[in-house]
Design goal:
Elements (H helix, E strand, L loop, with lengths): L8 H11 L1 H14 L14 H12 L11 H31 L1
Helix pairs in contact: 1-3
């Protein structure tokens, strides 16, 4: 008998995002920018996977990621978070290419 996976597609998507170390770096960068902090005050690697889960829950207004599969507003917020993160990743790759080309 197949094992039933906990949570639906959206919950699993959020779980995978929270396990991605790059998403933690994105949250580090985002918080530094939002709170005008210096790198030494909030270095890369500060946000843990648990912090990422807390961020998703708080931002989406949910208690459990499983709610993402049944709450359209929460799912829309997850989509926005994913889009913002993807935009940040694209910018990081562009910045890396520019720096790499200048050296």
């Amino acid at each position: 008998m197949d094992k039933v996976q906990k949570g639906g597609q959206q919950a699993r998507r959020a779980a995978m995002l929270c396990q991605n170390p790059r998403f933690g770096l994105y949250l580090d960068h985002r918080r530094r920018q939002a709170q005008a902090l210096e790198f030494r005050q909030l270095p890369d690697g500060t946000h843990t996977p648990e912090d990422c889960v807390d961020f998703i829950r708080q931002s989406c207004g949910i208690q459990s990621r499983a709610e993402l599969d049944h709450n359209d507003e929460a799912r829309a917020m997850l989509d926005r978070i994913m889009a913002d993160y993807s935009k940040w990743e694209r910018q990081q790759r562009l910045d890396d290419r520019l720096v790499g080309g200048a050296v």
